[in-house]
Amino acid sequence: MSVSDSDVDSQLPPLRRDCALFLDFDGTLAEIAPRPDQVRVDAGLPGLLERLSRALDGAVAVITGRPLQQIDALLAPLRLPGAGLHGAQLRPLTDAAVQLDDHPDIATARRRLNACKPADDHVWIEDKGAVLSLHFRDAPQAAEASRRAVEAAARGLDVDVMAGKSVYEVRPHGVDKGAAIRLLMSTPVFGGRRPVFAGDDVTDEDGFAVVRSLGGLTVKVGRGDTGAQWRCVNPAALGAWLAREAARLESADANYAATG
Q1: In whole angstroms, what is the distance from residue 82 CA to residue 90 CA?
Q2: One domain, residues 60 and 44
Q3: Are residues 160 and 179 located together in one domain of the fold?
Q4: Is the domain of 28 the same as that of 114?
Q5: What is the pTM of this model?
């Protein structure tokens, strides 16, 4: 079952103690900003995610196109497991080092993209190391030229091109959020749990597909066709659901302790 814009669920599913919670960041936990360094994080978000992590025995991860180092800075002092750069980075444990594979074809794509990007000051390259993003949010008229530039930069290389919200990205072939979630689900913290993934963009659809194949639950944030089973209107609505579920799980634990 896929969800269209007209099928907006007002009641998202409850989280169980045996869930593993995977969350995209931009557009999901925080509103998208014109530039990544302008994003604003609700002051209560780190505390809310910490509560959920305690309730789910540490099985909460951020699955993002950003480097994990940026997520750590935005959620400080909280540090969560997760996948950065759409899965090119992986951190299965809170205190583990970030694992990052070397992808030499990205260096070639970087040189090409710098040489052929549209000559528009409002089109800019975000170089994340293992992933390159060409943003045109402030120049929608340059969308087609941006697409051509990214495809030219990637031609003949072992990389994939992905379209997102006013951005085209070049990433190593086979790297996506679905593969990252599948890898995390094979680790001790997440293994054996029912995955739940919330995301907002086309880049999250791989994650939705994998989570559904594992018998999990998927939530689309915002508009757009999707393979997710549920939808909420914006990050504030998702945050309200997460807060409700954190309180419910904590209450259940308190009741168990009182009667145990």
Answers
A1: 6
A2: yes
A3: no
A4: no
A5: 0.87
In a domain, 8, yes or no: no
Examine residue 2 and state whether it is found in any structural domain, yes or no.
no
The 3-state DSSP class for residue 258 equals helix
Phi, psi of 64 (to 5 degrees): -140, 160
DSSP 46-106: HHHHHHHHHHTTT-EEEE-SS-HHHHHHHHTT----EEEGGGTEEE-STTSPPEE---HHH
Is position 12 within any domain? no
Each residue of 24-37: pLDDT tens digit? 999 999 999 988 88
Q: How far is CA 91 from CA 20, 65, 127, in A?
A: 15, 14, 20
Give domain status of residue 13, yes or no. no
Which tens digits make up the pLDDT trace of 64-123?
A: 999 999 999 999 999 999 999 999 899 988 877 676 656 789 999 999 999 999 999 899
* Chain segment 36-72, per-residue pLDDT in tens: 889 999 999 999 999 999 999 999 999 999 999 999 9
What one-character DSSP code corresponds to residue 240?
A: H
The count of domains in the chain is: 2
187 φ/ψ angles, rounded to the nearest 5 degrees: -95, 160
Q: Which residue in 9, 24, 57, 120 is the catalytic one?
A: 24
The whole domain housing 163 covers 104-172
Same structural domain, 179 and 88: yes
- C-alpha 211, offset from chain centre: 13
Q: Which of 121, 203, 119, 112 is nearest to 151 (CA)?
A: 112
Same domain, residue pair 168 and 108? yes
Active site residue 138: no
